Every structure is written in structure tokens, then in C-alpha cells.
Amino acid sequence: MCRGVNIAALADAPGRDGARRCVRLIDVARVAGFDTVRLPVRWSAHAGERRPYAVAPAILALVDGVVDHALGRGLTVVVNVHHFDELQADPDGQRDRFLAIWDQLARRYRDRPDGLMLELLNEPRDRLTASRWNALLAEALDVVRGHDRDRRVLIGPVDLNDPGALPRLDLPDDARIVPTIHYYRPFDFTHQGAGWEPGADRWLGTEWDGDAARERVEADLAAAAGWAAARGLPLFLGEFGVHDRAPAESRRRWVAWVRAVAERRGIDWCHWDLATDFGVYDDRTRTWDRPLLEALLGSAS
Ligand code: BGC
Predict the structure, then answer these.
(1) CA distances from 202 to 198, 215, 279 (A)
(2) φ/ψ of residue 13, rounded to 5
(3) Residues lining ligand 1, Cβ inside 6 A
(4) Residue 183: which residues within 8 A CB-CB, separation 6 or more?
(5) To which H or E segment does residue 62 belong?
(6) pLDDT computed for residue 10 by the predictor
(7) Residue 293's pLDDT is what?
(8) What is the pLDDT, as a whole number, of residue 88?
(9) How many angstroms separate the alpha carbon of residue 200 from the centre of ligand 1?
(10) Which residues of the chain have pLDDT under 70?
(11) pLDDT of residue 13
């Protein structure tokens, strides 16, 4: 069972300072009791625009150091392709570049221990419709399998990995695929006050509580787990969380409930995230939101 947390330090600031900070945050997460870290990386910002679409050696070396640090600490590690916005906007034009990035990553990581999992793409959306994504993910998986037959590969559905899109996800027949979803429902609760969501300030003050709200989560995650089980696959909940401007008690309740339902359904989980505005840890003051940490790692409700 994975009890994990996303660490966004590399996605946002992939320089030497970002890597150093990421290593420090990995240790903070591990000491608290998380056993898994998901490390979003915006590889596309460091890959050439033309064939062979080479990924810059400097970023590869930085990520290697962080990944090996986490693996060496006994953590399960997910590395993904994060914020590849050009691909979402122009799937045909960026296809070769996407596949070339995976060719380089899969070759590079093929000798790492099983604890490393690779995730093809964070939150497909926009012009990456279900049919386009289904075709592209099969090609990308072929590229990975050309180097590494046994690596666990996470693949999520369109609509930003929303579980409601699972029925439109076609997966190749491969027992080492792990379907992944992101859970942010109700969106106006989890994303209240999020600066990048137009109108999100109007949602401030939205509470979350009650039997109907709890049953909705239960039904959503039961359906997702059932979808994966019908294919003989486990399910990974790669992101779930609530913005820190939400009412604290509702935020804690929601996180505790989603985690409890996930664990009851045998779903591995990874909170979004450790130390951004969805975080459970304040890196400036180096203090935990204790009730939220308890909701994640204390005894389940
Ligand atoms: C995005 C973050 C965002 C989070 C919650 C992630 O996939 O990369 O920028 O804060 O989802 O919406």
C-alpha cells in the first residue's frame, strides 16, 4: 500500500536549488512516515525543439540525483511528464517529441530498482481527446517497453485524470500498467481560492461535510477501483488534495475521508502535495499542518 505525497520542487524550479530543496523535502516526507513520493518534472522545458529532441544532460543529472536519493531511502518513486502544455495543445505536432522524451527516459532508468515507477503524462486534456490519447499512450508504452519490459508504468485518463473518464481509457494488454486518477471533487470545494482558476475566489468559504458528500466520494472511488479490478490491475490515486484557503476543518475532513475510502478500496494514494498551496507542510516555517498530517497518516477514520 502506497501512502505518498507529491513534491513539486523539481517541476517548478528544476535548477540546482530546486534539486537540493527536493532532496531535503523528500527526507522531511519520509521522516513523517510517507513511503512514496511522486516527482513531477516538466521535461518538455528541457528537451530540444528538433530531432533528436535531446533532453538536457543537466536536468537528467539533477533528476537522477533526486530519484536515487529517494530510492536509497527506501521510498517508492513516481517520475512523470508534467505540464507538457504544448502536447495538450498540439498532439500531432508534438507526438515525435513526446515519444523521443520517453525513449530517453526509459533507456536511462531501465536499470533502476522496481521501486521506480514511470508515469506517461500528467492530466491529458484539451486537444488530447480520448481517442488521440489512447493511440498515443500505446505508442509511448511501446517505446518504454522497448527498453524496459517490467517497469510499472502509470497511465491516467483524459479530463485531467478525472475518474469519470476511465471508461474512455483504452489500455494495452500489459500487466505492469497501473491506472492512475486524480480526485478533486467537488472542484469548487478543493480549488476554492486557487489563483489560476478563474472565479475561484467566489468559492471561498465552501464547506464539505455530511453523509451525501461522503457517499459521493465512496461511489466515485468504488467505481474507479471496480474499473481497474475488472482489468486485473491495481489503482493509483496520484493526486488528491484541497487548497489551503479552504476552511481548515472541512479540508481536513475531506482529506481524511478520501484517504480512508482509498485505503478501504485498496487504492494506493499520493496527496497533492507536500509544500505548495495544497500542501501539508510549510517550508518557510518548517512546520506541519498537524491535523492534516494526522488525516493522512494517523489511524484512518
Ligand atoms: C498541477 C498543479 C496544481 C494541482 C492542483 C497539478 O496537476 O500541476 O499546478 O496545483 O494539480 O490543481
Answers:
(1) 9, 26, 21
(2) -135, 80
(3) 83, 122-123, 239, 272, 278
(4) 163, 217, 220, 221, 237, 239, 240, 258
(5) helix 57-72
(6) 81
(7) 98
(8) 97
(9) 14
(10) 12-13, 301
(11) 66
pLDDT 10s digits, 98-141: 999 999 999 999 999 999 999 999 999 999 999 999 999 999 99
pTM of the model: 0.97
**DSSP assigned state of 235:** -
Q: Which atom of ligand 1 is nearest to the CA of 241?
A: 5
CA of 6 to the centre of ligand 1 (A): 10
Q: In this structure, what C-alpha cell is assigned to residue 188?
A: 469548487
At residue 270, the pLDDT reads 98
Q: How far is the CA of 146 from the centre of ligand 1 (A)?
A: 31
Q: What is the rounded distance in angstroms from the CA atom of residue 122 to the CA atom of residue 214?
A: 27
CB-based contacts of 173: which residues, under 8 Å, 6+ apart?
none
Residues with Cβ within 8 Å of 5's Cβ and at least 6 positions away in sequence, in order, are: 29, 34, 36, 37, 38, 270, 271, 273, 274, 280, 296
Q: Which atom of ligand 1 is nearest to the CA of 243?
A: 5
| Number of the ligand 1 atom closest to the C-alpha atom of 40 | 8
The residues facing 266 across adjacent strands are none
